[in-house]
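Students often ask why inverse folding is considered easier than folding. One informal answer: many sequences map to the same fold, so there is more than one right answer. In these notes we will look at a single instance of the problem. The structure comes first.
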């Protein structure tokens, strides 16, 4: 059995990564698994521990990081986020194609360790639209919204590190395009491993 692909999906906070991913994550043709990250951020309303994230204390996070249990990690607007290595490896060995929804620094770390990873950056149609979406979510206070917008501008200057850039102007179209990219890479990967 061919080892599963590693697919990195990044994009600024509020661009709709989660919504786009939800559209194709259960598509049987893609055989995907979502890598649940570890974070020290507070749980938002509607989020479920172990599903959206594994919510941990700063001590627990740093212990996992220092024990080499993370594939990558980053600090993002005052909180730590990281990908548990064990889950990703297990899923890929089982032939699953694993989706990492991570920010730009984490992506660079993964690309160094796994040069075959397929990286996709989702951009908003405009910065104004991104601001409208972050505010519309009403999950963060103004100070954090500003920090996330500053971070978004910086992240958008890093998109040359990605193999593909997809605009989320329309969720359905963005999801279709990303599914197609993944599908083509699955076939390419299988041909290469035969
Ligand atoms: P949020 O707080 O909005 O859920 O996530 C903030 C940012 O952290 C997003 O860009 C998200 O993609 C990123 N992120 C989530 N999990 C991870 C992770 O495990 N590693 C890294 N490097 N970034 C992550």
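Output (designed amino acids):
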């Amino acid at each position: 059995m061919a080892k599963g692909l590693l697919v990195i999906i990044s994009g600024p906070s509020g661009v709709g990564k989660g919504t786009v991913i939800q559209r194709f994550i259960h598509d049987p043709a893609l055989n995907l698994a979502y890598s649940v990250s570890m974070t020290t951020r507070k749980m938002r309303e509607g989020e479920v521990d172990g599903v959206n994230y594994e919510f941990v204390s700063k001590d627990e996070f740093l212990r996992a990081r220092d024990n080499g249990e993370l594939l990558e990690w980053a600090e993002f607007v005052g909180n730590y986020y990281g990908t548990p290595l064990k889950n990703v490896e297990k899923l890929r060995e089982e032939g699953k194609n694993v989706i990492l929804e991570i920010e730009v620094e984490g992506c660079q770390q993964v690309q160094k360790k796994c040069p075959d990873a397929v990286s996709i950056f989702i951009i908003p149609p405009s910065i104004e639209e991104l601001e409208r979406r972050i505010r519309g979510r009403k999950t963060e206070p103004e100070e954090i919204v500003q920090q996330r917008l500053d971070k978004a501008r910086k992240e958008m200057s890093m998109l040359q590190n990605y193999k593909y850039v997809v605009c989320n102007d329309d969720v359905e179209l963005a999801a279709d395009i990303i599914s197609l990219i993944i599908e083509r890479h699955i076939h390419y990967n299988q041909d290469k491993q035969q």
